Amino acid sequence: MKFSLRTICALAAVLLLIGGLAYAQGPGDSKAVTSRNGEYFDKAGNPTFHIENGKVDWYTYAGYIRYGANCLACHGPDGLGSTYAPSLVSALKTLSYSEFYAIVAGGKKDVSASSDLVMPSFGTNPNVMCYIDPIYIYLRARADGAWGRGRPTDHEPVPEAYTKAENQCMG
Amino acid sequence: MKHASRKLLLLAGVVLSSALAIGSARAQDELSKMSANPNDWVIPARTYDSQRYSPLDQINASNVGTLQPAWTFSTGVLRGHEGAPLVVGDVMYVHTPFPNIVYALDLNNNGKILWKYEPTQDPSVIPVMCCDTVNRGVAYGDGKIFLHQADTTLVALDAKTGKVVWSVKDGDPKLGQTGTEAPLVVKDKVLVGVSGGEFGVRGWVSAYNISDGKLVWRAYSEGPDKDLLVDPQKTTMLGKPIGADSSLKTWQGNEWKIGGGDTWGWYSYDPKLNLIYYGSGNPSTWNPSQRPGDNKWSMTIFARDLDTGMAKWVYQMTPHDQWDYDGINEMILADLQINGQTVPALVHFDRNGFAYTLNRDTGALLVAAKYDPAVNWATGIDMDASSPNYGRPILVPKYETSKQDVNVTGICPAALGTKDEQPATYDPQTKLFYVPTNHVCMDYQPFRVAYVAGQPYVGATLSMYPPPGQTNMGNFIAWDATTGKIVWSDPELFSVWSGALSTAGGVVFYGTLEGYLKAVDAKTGKELYSYKTPSGIIGNVMTYMHNGVQYVAVLSGVGGWAGIGLAAGLTDPHAGLGAVGGYAALSNYTNLGGSLTVFALPKS
Considering only CA atoms, which of B568, B566, B441, B432 is closest in space to residue B506? Predict the structure, then answer.
C-alpha cells in the first residue's frame, strides 16, 4: 500500500474524468465477501466493512478515528454534516468508491452567487491519503446504516500488515 | 546675520515640531475621543478597554419588554456571521463572512447602501479556514475603514466612498495562513493577527501605518527573542524576567516553526500605559507528544508597547496544552476594587475554563477561578508565589492526553472551551461581568500526524457531549472578578455563542444559537425580552443612538465552530450500544442565513 503522491494525483485525475463522464455509479452491494490482511472487500472488489454483533473490523474503527482527525472539522461529528458541509452519511448512499476517492484526492468546488462550498484536495496529504480506505469503509458503514453514531468500542485487533503499510506510507 | 538666521531656523523648527506634535496628538487621540461618544460605536468593542458597556439608557429594564425590530438588512451572504457593525456618525458599516463584503449604510435614509466593497479573493482560501469562513468585523480610523480579509489582505478603504486607499498582504493562505479577526486601530497604527493554529501556522501580530500600510513591527508568538520582540531582562512573567530564549527552550528541534500560537482573537488597549493586550492560540499539533515542552508562547496573554511592539509582560495560562484551549479570548480592562485597593485590572475568560484577573500594568496574577463548576482538567491554578509551579495549572493526571492513540474520556471543557471568541461584557454599575459560556465536555484521542504546508496539522479526534447528567450545552452567567464567583447563571439549551452587551439601562443583551436576541436584568438575570431572528446568532450585540432613538443591533447567521459541532446534535458516547437519540440538534432549530436585525422601543 505504498502511495506515491504523484501516482495519487494522476489516479485522481483519471477517476475524476471517468466520474464526470458517467452517472453516479452508486456504492453497490456492501456485503463483505473476501478479506485480505484484515481489510474486507465486496463482490465488486471495493473496500467495505464487516460488522457482527457490535464488533467492527479494524478498518471501520480506524476510519472513525481518521474521519474525526481530518473530516470532522467541516463535515461534523459522525459524518452527519455541519451548517455548511454536506452530510457524508447521505452522500455515500450515492457515491461509489472511485468517486469518493477522486473527490477526496482532487477536491470539489461549488462556488456561485448562492454558495461558496470548497472542499480542498487532500491528494498530497499523507494524513488523509494513507487512511483513505479506512475513512471510506467507516463512512460506507454509516451510510448503509450498519454503524450508528459514536465510537466503535469493540473492534478486531490491528492487523500487522496495516501497521506495516501505515509506517511505510507515513514515513 | 548668520547667528540671527540660525536662531530663526531653530525657532521655526521648534514651532514646526510642536505643531506636528499637536497635529499627530490629535490623530493619536481621535478614537479615544470618538469612542467617548455613546451614540456611536467606532471600535469593534466600542471602547479600547473592551468592556462592551454602553452608557445609553433610553432602553432600560422597565421598557425593554416592549422592544421590537425597527429595521433589517440582508447581508447577501450565508455562513457564520461573527462580529458586529460599526456606527460612525450617520453611517453604519456592516461586514460579512467570505467573500468579506463591506456595506456603508445611510442611517439618515433607512439604511440605503452608500457604497459596497467586495474584494476578489481566490475561493481556495475557504477550506483552509478551520472553523467556518467567519470575519469578526471592520475597524475605523483616520477617515478609513480597515478590512482584514480571509486571504490575509489588509485593505484600507475611504470611509466616504469605499475606494481602496492602500492594500497589503499580511500572510499566505497556501501556507494555511488566513484572516478572521477584526483589526484594531490605535493612534497611527492598525494591528492585525493571523489564523491557522490547525495548519501549523506560527502566529504573529503585525502593526501597519494607517496612512500608507507600511509595516512598522511584527511580533511572533514563538521562536528566537528577536522575533518575539521581548527583552530577556525587562519582559517579565509573574514579576520575573523571562530570560533569554524563553520560547526556543520550550520546543524540541524546529517544531516552533510550525508551532501555532495564532492571534485570531480580540485586542485591547490602555492609553495611559500605552500597552496593547491580546492572547495567543493553541500550539500545533493537537497531538501533545509531537511537541514536548511548555510550547511558549502559545496560550499566552501578551502586554506590548503599542509603538515598538516590545512585550512588557506575558503570562502563559496553559503550558504544554493537551486540549486545544486557545488563549485568544478578549482581554477586558477595568479598574476593580480588590482587597480594598483600586487595581488596574485585566480580566480574561479563557477557553480552559478559568477566569483570570491580573494587574494589567505589572502582569501580577490576582485571581484565577473556574467560571463553570464542570471544569475538571485542573483543580486550580497554583497561586503560591514561592512555589516552583506558581501560576501553572494543577493538572488532574487522568485528563491529560499525553499518550498517543489513547482515548481520554470525560474531559471538561471540550476543545471549544468554557468560552470561545464570543466576548463577555463588564458593567461598571453592577461591577459584574456577563459571560456567554459553553457547557460541553469531550473525549480526546491524539495520534501522529505529518506536516504538509497548507494542509491541516491537527492530530486528534474528539467527541463532545454535555457534562454527565445535564442537557443544557450553555449558560449565560454573571461573574464577580474580584472574588472569582458566579453570581447568577441562566441555562441555555445550546452554547451561548454571541457577544454580550451591557447598558446603563440595567439591561444585558445576548443572542442564542437558535437565533433569539435576549435581554436580561443585569442584577438578577431574569429574562425581560426575547425575539427570534432569522438565523442562529454568533455575532456580538451592539447599540447606538440616532436622531434621539436608541437602537440595539445584532447579526444573525449560524455557523462558526458551533455550526460544525452542534448542527447534527451531540450524543452520549458512554450510553452504550443501541442508545437512541442524544441531545438537541441545532439543525432542528435554525438554518443558514445572513441578516442584521435592529431593534428599538415602539414609537410613542
Answer: B432
pLDDT-derived band at A19 (thresholds 50, 70, 90) equals very low
Query: Residue B157: in which H helix or E strand, if any?
Result: strand B153-158
A23 pLDDT more than 90: no
Find the length of chain B: 604
Q: Which CATH number belongs to the domain containing residue B533 in this structure?
A: 2.140.10.10
Question: Could you tell me which of B489, B487, B519 has the C-alpha nearest to residue B506?
Answer: B519
- CA torsion angle for B413, B365, B281, B288 (degrees, to 10)? -70
pLDDT of residue B30: 93
Q: Is the pLDDT of residue B486 over 90?
A: yes
Active site annotation includes B324:
yes
Residue B294 pairs in a beta bridge with none
Is residue B297 reached through a cis peptide bond, with omega within 30 degrees of 0 on the bond before it?
Answer: yes
Which of A82, A87, A111, A138 is most worth mutating to test chain B (most B CB atoms within 10 A of its CB)?
A82
The domain total for chain B is: 1
Which of A118, A69, A75 shows the shortest CA–CA distance to B457?
A: A69
Which residues of chain A does B558 touch, with a Cβ-Cβ cutoff of 8 Å?
83
Is the pLDDT at B53 greater than 90, yes or no? yes
Contacts of A165 (CB under 8 A, 6+ apart): A1, A2, A130
Is B62 inside any structural domain? yes
Which pLDDT does position B225 carry in this prediction?
A: 98
**Closest chain A residue to B587, measured at CA:** A83
Locate cell 493586550: which residue? B277
CB B467 within 8 A of CB B310: no
Provide the b/e sequence for B234-266 (b: ≥16 CB within 10 Å): ebbbbeeebeeebbbebbeeebbebbbbbbbbb
Boundaries of domain holding B106:
54-600
Contact between B255 and B314 under an 8 Å Cβ cutoff? The reply is no
State pLDDT tens for residues A113-161: 667 788 989 999 999 999 999 999 999 999 999 999 999 989 999 999 9
- Position B524 in a domain: yes
Q: What is the mean pLDDT of chain B?
A: 93
Q: How far is the alpha carbon of B593 from chain A, nearest alpha carbon, in Å?
A: 10
pTM across the whole model: 0.92
Q: Is residue B16 part of a domain?
A: no
Check if the interface score ipTM surpasses 0.85.
Answer: no
* 8 Å CB contact of B563 and A107: no
Q: Which three cell numbers stand for residue B83?
A: 462580529
Distance from CA of A44 to the nearest CA of B (A): 31
Query: Does the structure show a pLDDT above 60 at B576?
Result: no
pLDDT tens track for B125-157: 998 998 899 999 999 999 999 999 999 999 999
Is B295 among the domain residues? yes
Shortest distance, CA B197 to any CA of chain A (angstroms): 13
CA distance B400 to B472: 25
pLDDT over 50 at A18, yes or no: no
**Amino acid found at B300:** T
